[in-house]
Amino acid sequence: MRVLITGPIGAGKTTMCEEVIRRIGHQRSTFGFLTYPILKEGRRVGFYLLDLKTGSKKLLASETLSDGPTLGRFHFSMEGIAFGIKALKRRGDLCIVDELGRVEIQGEGFFEAVPLMRKREDLIVTARTDFVNEIVDLFKVDFLIFEITAENRGKIQKKIAAVFDSSYHKKML
Q1: Fold classification of 2-172 (topology level)
Q2: Contact in structure between 95 and 132 (CB atoms under 8 Å)
């Protein structure tokens, strides 16, 4: 099953992925990456990636980098992008990609890994609500789409975890 988790900035897309991992991680091998903000005095000044398989971290974007694509005030690190692509090439039951957006839509960032991600049977991708149609078009596969809001956050966590919990049990039969 391929799931696209969407919502505005700060809606809890990464937290949702963490919750799915917590709920089904004991029975599923997860891989891929989560993206976390780097805060300075409460302001986002960059982002780092967490490799779900190894637990290692790498800077993805900041206001001061200069070797990769630029989006708004953030400059992406080619080393950070390579780190994320490597995390997506690992093996496991459930691939988590947190998150894709304008950089990939423009053919940069993790774009080169889209064919690899497209082949994954069990996949969670996060994206801002603004980019849902473009991400679906980029992948050319069907997604079960969950939009996170403050009101539905708790219910959606259970539904997404149940999707992967049940698909896992079906494969084991």
Answers
A1: Rossmann fold (3.40.50)
A2: no
- Check residue 7 and give left, alpha or beta (phi > 0: left; psi -120 to 50: alpha): left
3-state secondary structure the chain: CEEEEEECCCCCHHHHHHHHHHHHCCCCCEEEEEEEEEEECCEEEEEEEEECCCCCEEEEEECCCCCCCEECCEEECHHHHHHHHHHHCCCCCEEEEEEECHHHHCCCHHHHHHHHHHCCCCEEEEEEHHHHHHHHHHHCCCCEEEECCCCCHHHHHHHHHHHHHHHHHHHHC
Contact of 3 with 125, CB cutoff 8 Å: yes
pLDDT in tens, 142-168: 999 999 988 888 788 888 888 887 554
Q: What is the pTM of this model?
A: 0.92
> Is residue 148 within 8 Å of residue 11, measured between CB atoms?
yes
CB 173 within 8 A of CB 33: no
Distances (CA, A) of 105 to 102, 114, 132, 160: 5, 10, 11, 25
Q: Which residues contact 65 (CB under 8 A, 6 or more apart)?
A: 59, 75, 76, 77
